[in-house]
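Field reference: sequence -> structure
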Amino acid sequence: MQIRPVQAPGTLPVDLTLAMKFCNANSADADVVTIALGAAVAHAERVTGRALTSRKYIATLDQFPQFPFAGNTFYPLFANFPFLAGTGPVMNYPTVSPLQETDRLPFTIYLRPTPVTAVEKITYIDLQGNSAILLPGIDFAVDLISEPARISPLPGGSWPQGLIGISYVEVHFTAGFSVDPTDVEDVFVSAGSPARENVEFVFANGIPLDLKQALLILTNDFYCNREMNVAGSVGRVPQVDDILALYTKHDYRVDQ
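Structure field:
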């Protein structure tokens, strides 16, 4: 799976006036501080794997996730499992199976960077070669609370069949912290008609104050130390390393 932003970063999580005050910079250096602040945000995003400023992304796959044993010699043994083709009552699920455990469902798509605040739609190429659209809550389930956020077929369902090709499946979503540290995100996913799934997510989405502090320290470091090497420097900012480490979540999951 490939994920790329389709927008430039939105409002930076640190106000330029505050950054200039922190750097003791005068108005003539506003453009220099602006570049340093943008570089600090980009560096922190690369290290933590988080979106520190809200913007839209597209995740692309060549096909929807399939049952893990598809194409395997033992595939026929699972032919009667309802989650294989999205048919049959849920009670027919195997009573003992790791596939029932949270985070191990075979059809889940994980979205990064975090925090994901909205999933707008999924587009894919159907079996007739036409572009088709799936909507959250109506055609697929959304989980914005988990990190990373997850999407999956509705309970008892499956992903639609479509053609397999380069980036034939596109997931459109929005990710990023709010610039206000006290901001609370209230997201309601409508089930549509007929109702399939009504979900409301309420969570704090303001950028943590220690992350803002790390960005200010990095900005000042980039602003003051403009050469490749500075005599007597340690080559890094220990306080920033410690703060960014707190918000870095290592994920060794293999994408489908």
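Note: Residues 85-102 have pLDDT under 50 and may be disordered.
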